[in-house]
Amino acid sequence: MNNCIFCKIVKGEIEAKKIYENDISIGILDVNPLTKGHCLIISKRHIQWFYELEDDEFEKVFRAVKIVARKIKDVLNPEVVCMIVRGLRIPHVHIILIPSFKEDIVGRFFALLDAVQSFPPSTKEDIENKLLKLKDAIQNFSQENLKKEMDKIAVLLRIDD
Length: 161
Hints:
By secondary structure, the protein is α+β, with helices and mostly antiparallel strands.
């Protein structure tokens, strides 16, 4: 697709901090990270939805996800590596991997989500407390500091097969 930013990255028309590549997909660091190591696994073929990938493409894309997630876990040691599959804002298959560290913006978001969905139900006060902690994390969030670390992180996460 002509205006697709991910297609341009795949073709090398736009620079990206590539950390992984196979014949079906590439892994790049996100240009607007939520946490250090936040990256994307992108299908090389332009297609919007992951469930429309051919079986062999699906296997290789998600194998890449697993390889990169393990590398993130080994190198950066987050509590967890979150995975989100999208195709809305940028209509091109991409799997988002976001390392979550204790008390970061991602961890606090999921703590709030857990409180809302918990069984037995959380108290209103507990939910409000988690919402305030998320608000605090958002107010103290500095993407600029993360962007300064991206070159170093790209080297640390680079996987050569």
